[in-house]
Design a protein that fits this description.
By secondary structure, this protein is mainly alpha-helical. It has two domains: 69 residues, Arc Repressor Mutant, subunit A (Orthogonal Bundle), CATH 1.10.10; 133 residues, GntR ligand-binding domain-like (Four Helix Bundle (Hemerythrin (Met), subunit A), Up-down Bundle), CATH 1.20.120. The protein is built from nine helices and two strands. A hairpin with a 3-residue loop joins strand 1 and strand 2. The two termini are 25 Å apart.
């Protein structure tokens, strides 16, 4: 079986700049999942992926383990690895959790004097790219940069664990209801509040931003 490995540049640096083959495999397979080249439910066979990526099976195996932990693939004993099939209920649960936790994490982070430079860089990258998968990953990086200084490792850890799953839900929702331009404007407003050290406003804007996407997600009606 051959896989359609994306030819667009990954969010991570060019493969020659990556510190390991595992990171190259991880970035490429993640790109394939988020772009739809590797479809929901599709089997991911180590040997086939290794051949496609021109590497041994070991880094591919390690990449798949990481993708399992991030919720993008599912490993079933005696069945193998498959791309996760995200249901409507799954996607709603992911964004409900973000809605409960992320505004407070952002508020704490801004109060703690978070460095907004990485968030601005991510926002610029999201604005420049034309690939939905890359835009979604950049948007997730934007949000993560703003709650990075929340000073609560458990809170940050939960949000970090949702990043890739949120990206998958976002890309699929955009395919049905393109809304990324509106979301980009909301991101700009959130960043402005953070740069002004207005923690309460940044939290409120974040809450409204996630709630709006959650509403659109619920209105989609069908599995994603």
């Amino acid at each position: 079986m051959m896989y359609d490995v994306p030819t667009t540049p990954p969010l991570l640096p060019h493969p020659t700049a990556l510190p390991s083959r595992t990171e190259h495999a991880l970035a490429t397979i993640k790109e394939g999942i988020l772009s739809g080249c590797l479809a929901a439910g599709q089997p991911l066979v180590e040997a086939d992926l290794a051949q496609e990526l021109a590497m041994s099976k070991t880094p591919v195996r390690e990449a798949l383990k990481t993708l399992e932990m991030s919720g993008l693939v599912v490993v079933r004993p005696y069945v193998g690895v498959r791309v996760r099939e995200l249901t409507q209920a799954d996607a709603v649960a992911i964004y409900e959790t973000r809605l409960l936790l992320e505004p407070e994490a952002t508020r704490r982070s801004v109060l703690g004097g978070v460095d907004t430079t990485p968030a601005r860089a991510a926002l610029e990258l999201a604005d420049e790219t034309t690939e939905p998968a890359q835009r979604s990953l950049a948007n997730r990086a934007f949000h993560a940069a703003l709650w990075a200084a929340a000073d609560n490792p458990i809170l940050v850890g939960i949000l970090e664990s949702l990043r890739d799953q949120a990206a998958l839900a976002a890309v699929t929702t955009w395919a049905r209801q393109p809304s990324w331009r509106d979301e980009a404007q909301e991101h700009t407003q959130i960043l402005a509040a953070a740069e002004a050290s207005d923690a309460d406003l940044a939290a409120d804007l974040t809450r409204r931003h996630i709630a709006g996407f959650l509403d659109r997600l619920r209105q989609g009606g069908e599995p994603v």
